[in-house]
Design goal:
Helices cover 0% and strands 57% of the residues. Strands 2, 4, 5, 6, 9, 10 and 11 form a seven-stranded mixed sheet that branches. Strands 1-3-8-7 form a four-stranded antiparallel sheet, with no helix packed on it. The termini are far apart.
């Protein structure tokens, strides 16, 4: 079983920056990717970014391209999301997941990001 734990959320003014972390532990052997979704109140969960387990092939939602950067430290099994030029519409609960082919995603509990205007 794999556990994923997010950290780094908080309250920031528009235009500011935050860095989220997601640590994976447990049986991570065979993992293929990690990524982030977010969910705002009253809205559906939406994809934010993902990266291969080895840190390659980053992919982003159009809404965050050029502002967010995803990365992964293989030695620590930890993924990061650097969020710059934050906007109020980036507000939501950010959820980390780990993927392994053929198994359901492992999800964290989420971390709240609030961007004030």
């Amino acid at each position: 079983q794999v556990q994923v734990v997010e950290s780094g959320g908080g309250l920031v003014q528009a235009g500011g920056s935050l860095r989220l972390s997601c640590a994976a532990s447990g049986r991570t052997f065979g993992s293929s990717a990690m990524g982030w979704f977010r969910q705002a109140p009253g809205k559906e969960r939406e994809f934010v970014a993902r990266v291969d387990w080895n840190g390659g092939n980053p992919d982003y939602a159009d809404s965050v391209k050029g502002r967010f950067t995803i990365s992964k430290d293989e030695s620590k099994n930890t993924m990061y999301l650097q969020m710059n030029s934050l906007k109020p519409e980036d507000t939501g609960v950010y959820l980390c997941y780990r993927e392994r082919v053929g198994t359901p995603r492992s999800w964290g509990q989420g971390t709240q990001v609030t961007v004030s205007s």
